[in-house]
Specification:
Number of strands: 18
Largest sheet: 6 strands, antiparallel
Distance between the termini: 37 Å
Number of helices: 9
Strand order of the largest sheet: 2-3-4-5-9-8
Structural class: alpha+beta
Strand content: 25-35%
Radius of gyration: 23 Å
Order of helices and strands: EEEHHEEEEEEEHHEEHEHEEEHHEHE
Shape: elongated
């Protein structure tokens, strides 16, 4: 199996009237292995949040360091505070731990059974039961293929709609049928989580009766994107800088009018402009033969920062892949939905066209750094090159 890139994403709904979610997702990747833990604390509110946070932190740290499952469960049991009312310390969990070869493990304790999506259809994982300190823990050996998804969830998902639209909640078979009917090829992990959580919110009629979390791990093939923002300070380095940008693998994006003209000249092409304004706040895109996307600079990047903050919100239920055709939305799709690795080429030349305007090189650099930080939060591998 060639190396896979494991991306993850999740969405949470707080129980009606609660400021804190009683579910917690913890995730970590060291470049070789990815570990994701979804923990559901007993009850709701502050106490549940504390239980879930402790459980997810402990398990994510220990599992990512290849500590045995029995020792992990024992540590959790001995660490959790005991509820004075119920006299139990209780948090359920689902753990996904896999490497770049797609091989790994899925551990589950009292959460709804995970769902695997392969070739666009839902499968049930093969589970082996273990008794650890009197608790039934289920284990699944993973052998992930490109575009496999692992969906883990808290019980708020299968409770959705109880006493409202459904008598017995949203049964697991109903969840699978919904995924089969609504899944689209190429959806991001975050997009799948959002799709399922959005359906739960509808069944709860916008007033969740329980904390509800969906977390997804997706095995992806490597998809690099290279983006050029501005020309270098020294004009004599233009050709070298553009050559470095163009000759790497992956899709190519050019942001900024000056950059577009330089790249087009290097390629022996011309820049043609679009006269469509899908969004009045975003300048129109351009076209250069051999370049996948050409946009305006600072205004488009500023809009992308705004879109990326919304994209990262774990409570936002809008579809993650935008259908809008403005430059910022197209950038969002390519960077946040499609790419796995992003390389920025950031030129620090001062643009003479910005003289007299409240735009300077500091603003551009700050926008790029914010976008890069948000991409890393989304689990992307980001490299920044300045010239």
């Amino acid at each position: 199996m060639e190396n896979l890139f494991l991306e993850s994403g999740y969405t949470s709904l707080n129980k009606k009237g609660e400021e804190l979610c009683g579910d917690k997702v913890e995730q970590v990747s060291d470049g070789e292995n990815t570990t994701l833990v979804l923990a559901d604390g007993l009850g709701s509110g502050v106490k549940a949040n504390i239980l879930a946070t402790l459980t997810s932190k402990i398990l994510c740290t220990m599992v990512s360091n290849d500590i045995g499952l029995e020792e992990c469960v024992e540590t959790v049991v001995q660490t959790l505070p005991v509820c004075k009312v119920r006299q139990v310390a209780y948090a359920t969990f689902s753990v996904v731990h896999a490497g770049k070869d797609g091989k790994g493990m899925l551990f589950e304790f009292d959460n709804p059974e995970a769902i695997i999506i392969r070739d666009g259809k839902c499968l049930d994982p093969e589970r082996t039961e273990y008794d650890i300190l009197g608790k039934k823990v289920y284990c699944t050996r993973l052998a992930l293929q490109p575009d496999d998804y692992i969906v883990v969830m808290s019980d708020g998902v299968i409770h959705a709609g109880i006493g409202m639209l459904l008598n017995f909640g949203w049964l697991r078979k109903d969840v699978k049928e919904y995924i089969d009917a609504n899944f689209s090829k190429g959806m991001s992990a975050r997009g799948v989580a959002c799709m399922i959580a959005g359906a739960c919110n509808d069944l709860y009629m916008g007033e969740p009766g329980d904390d509800t979390t969906v977390a997804v791990v997706r095995a992806r093939e490597y998809c690099p994107v290279r983006i050029m923002v501005g020309p270098p300070v020294e004009k004599e380095r233009d050709d070298y800088y553009i050559g470095q940008f163009l000759h790497g693998e992956g899709k190519k994006i050019v942001c900024g009018g000056t950059s577009s003209q330089l790249v087009a000249k290097y390629l022996g092409e011309k820049v043609s402009a679009s006269f469509d304004f899908p969004d009045p706040d975003v300048p129109p895109i351009g076209y250069i033969k051999g370049i996948d996307l050409t946009t305006e600079g600072v205004l488009t990047l500023r809009k992308l920062v705004e879109l990326s903050e919304k994209y990262l919100s774990t409570s936002d239920l809008d579809p993650k892949r935008s259908k809008k055709q403005d430059g910022a939305s197209l950038l969002e799709n390519m960077l946040f939905e499609d790419a796995t690795h992003i390389t920025f080429f950031v030129g620090q030349s001062i643009n003479s066209a910005h003289q007299g305007l409240p735009i300077d090189i500091t603003m551009k650099l700050k926008l790029v750094e914010t976008i890069a930080a948000n991409l890393r939060k989304a689990g992307k591998v980001v490299e920044l090159n300045y010239d």
